[in-house]
Amino acid sequence: MAYVAVESDERLEEGDSKVFAQPPEGNIGDRSPRESQGRGYISDAANASFWNVDYYQHHFDVDTKTVIFRCINTLNPFSPTYTSAHLTPAPDLYGPFWSLTTLIFTLFVTSSLAHSVVSYLSSSPVEYDFALLSTAVGLVYAYGIGVPVMLWGVLRYIGISEGWAMGEAVTVWGYGMFVWIPVSILCIIPIALFRWILVGIGFAVSGYFLVANIYPVLLSADQKPVRLLIVLIAVLHAVVALLFKVLFFSYYIETNIGPTDPVANNVMARMVP
Amino acid sequence: MASAPPTATTQYIQADDSDDDLNDEDIPGFGAGTPLLDTPDKGKGRVPDHLASPGIPPPVVSGNINSSGNPSKSPARQSFGGVQIETRYGGIDTLDEPITATIGRDLLSIYNKLVQVLYPIRKGSSREVLRDWDLWGPLILCLMLGILLSVNAPKDQSLGVFTSVIVIVCVGALVVTIQAKLLGGRVSFFQGLCALGYCVAPLDIAALVSCFVRVIYVRAPVAILAWAWCIWASANFLDGTKIDPQRILLAVYPLLLFYFILAWMILIQ
Q1: Which residues make Cβ contacts (< 8 Å) with residue B29, sequence separation at least 6?
Q2: DSSP letters spanning B226-266
Q3: Cβ-contact B210, B217 below 8 angstroms
Q4: Min Cα separation B48/chain A (Å)
């Protein structure tokens, strides 16, 4: 008789013995990291490889209200859980990723809405710029995911922050960008001063969230100059805020002052062979 | 030496030196047998009882070359280097029929699936809705949407628009399916892609209407209606994936975004 390898036996031997244990509990206290929120989901994260979907499952272990709470919490600097809401019980990747994606789409939609409102008010024909969508994608993902990963890499290289996971870095940046969504919706209004004030508020709120969360990590370094990194982060944030304003919220009403110039148009026409 | 016909209780006989007449295949149990199908996501989202029963009999996978044996229409899953692959088996010998019959059958199947997705039947059997997934339908719908949108775009941007639409549909369907899996839903990967691709169909209709009608007061309601229809059809599909009710909004939200951006691109043509 030949032996047929039963793969399920191997799975039973390794891994969490909690698999057979008690029924799912609702207690927050004795939640094991593997058993997600007492719901009976057993994640196979130990057995999964990097390319398997299960490897990432514990990053998405959140409910709707948790995500919404974390998003709204970034708007209120005085809340007691300002620096901890997105980390308890574990940082998630759902909020940051969809926050960034929503931001991209909001920027594109509000920008084209602003363009059409302005064109309607100045009675000129509308030509939408679809390239704005790809610009938005590049800018937001590079800043929201690329910069935290780079910062995490730099800190790892320097040797501090052994306890700061890459997921936490991305979480901070992702939730921090949430404030730009209401800002961009309000920026449809084509008044220049109003837009600059809004962008300033957005910069301040999201910048403060970033600084409040990153500075404690930088403080844990032995070398003093590492704290200057926070200046670099603030400068980068200011650059991104400026880019948002200039790229997406620059549509203003053009009105003709004075009579139309009959010569100018013809000059151009004659110069073209 | 005389060999008795092998029965179910035949033990494995120690081979002699003169075993020329011993046929290996006649010995029951000799050889690898049917390999167990790899199901890497076995543990996900199931109660502990499942993992306690390892002795699941391996499902029979028999693919006959002459295809006159088992015509099984269900997608067969195999594991190839740790990656799960699903293939479809037609069950009929398709080499000799005229081309119109082949294409006609595929078109009919696309049409059937379209109807199933867009007008889902509420009776119990509807959960089997897209077992027989295919990606031709979503491809055709996606290309149609891209063409309709890029035809009316400004001249220098029409290629960009076409590219954006294709990329958004492909990447969007991928991301939403993976997201649903990550949130704990039990959805097969290609089935998810197929369903989300088919749900783009109402937006195709809206794009067609928007091609010809320029009045915003007609295009806006049509686009919004098409968007709502898409969401309803794909939420129906997500219903069957048994995601926890407290997270269902998290799974539906990416759909809202995904179809909204397409509807927006239709609106601002």
Answers
A1: A1, A2, B12
A2: HHHHHHHHHHHHHHTT---GGGHHHHHHHHHHHHHHHHHHH
A3: no
A4: 6
- pLDDT bucket at A189, cuts 50 / 70 / 90: confident
Chain B residue numbers with beta carbons less than 8 Å from the beta carbon of A48 are 40
Q: Mean pLDDT across the stretch A124-141?
A: 84
Local structure of A251: helix, strand or coil: coil
Question: Looking at this predicted complex, what is its ipTM?
Answer: 0.72
Rounded to 10 deg, the angle between the A166-176 and A192-219 helix axes is: 160
Q: Among all residues of chain A, which has the CA nearest to that of B263?
A: A109
pLDDT (tens digit per residue) in A39-91 = 444 545 555 666 776 777 777 777 888 888 888 888 887 777 777 777 777 78
User: In chain B, which residues have their Cβ closer than 8 Å to the Cβ of A65?
Assistant: 246
Kindly determine whether residue B45 and residue A109, on different chains, have CB atoms separated by under 8 Å: no
Between the CA of residue B64 and those of A54, B84, B254, what are the distances in Å?
34, 21, 42
Give the Cα separation of B84 and B73 in Å (integer).
18
Contact A102 B257 (CB under 8 A): yes
Closest C-alpha to A181, from A246, A239, A116, A136: A136
Report DSSP state, residue A146.
Answer: I
A-B contacts at Cβ under 8 angstroms: 120
Instruction: Please choose, from the candidates A190, A250, A116, the residue with its C-alpha nearest in 3D space to the C-alpha of residue B268.
Output: A116
| H-assigned helices in chain A | 7-13, 64-73, 94-121, 131-141, 147-158, 166-176, 180-186, 192-219, 229-248, 262-271
Between A160 and B162, the more confident residue is B162
Percent of chain A with pLDDT over 90: 16
- pTM of the full structure: 0.70
In the chain, the amino acid numbered B114 is L
| Reported confidence tier of residue A29, pLDDT bands at 50, 70, 90 | very low
Are B257 and A98 in contact (CB < 8 Å)?
A: yes
Structural contact between residues A35 and A19, judged by C-beta atoms closer than 8 angstroms: no
Cβ distance of A4 and B30 shorter than 8 Å: no
Model pLDDT, residue A271: 54
